[in-house]
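Journal club side-thread
Mid-discussion, someone asked how the predicted structure for our own chain would compare to the paper's figures. Pasting it here so we can look after the session.
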Amino acid sequence: MPKIVPCLWMDDRIEEAVRFYVSVFGDARIINEEKYDDAVPGQKGKVMTMAFELEGQEFMALNGGPIFKFNEAVSFVVNCKTQAEVDYFWEKLTADGGAESQCAWLKDKYGLSWQIVPEALPRYLGDADPAKANRVMQAMLQMKKIDIAALERAYAG
């Protein structure tokens, strides 16, 4: 068992959400689920927690009700090698009620924030030439979904 596991507080759509996340990522699985027993009135038999894994990262989901909501203070970064990979995750995670934001950020239909980041972005932003890095930053600030070809053009000048 990993020492640190992110726990996602869900509002009664835990099974739907976990199955969605597992369907989006190629290396993913549901590890287990626990159901409420008699200790919590009105919840007996409903799923309480689900443990799952996405690309080697373990997560816990808690069916905690409407008390807490996700916000942008926490997001998950998906590092991508190609534009096709960026496009795939962007499309899947914004589908059916998700929302695009700025600079590689989006929210999925459950309100969870993600950053879909091509490996080229931090490499270009970290370039020793401040003019190149600045051009890439200015290009990125105009984007929602990151366009690697546009970053390359900005980098080249």
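Post-session note: The first strand starts at residue 7 and ends at 10.
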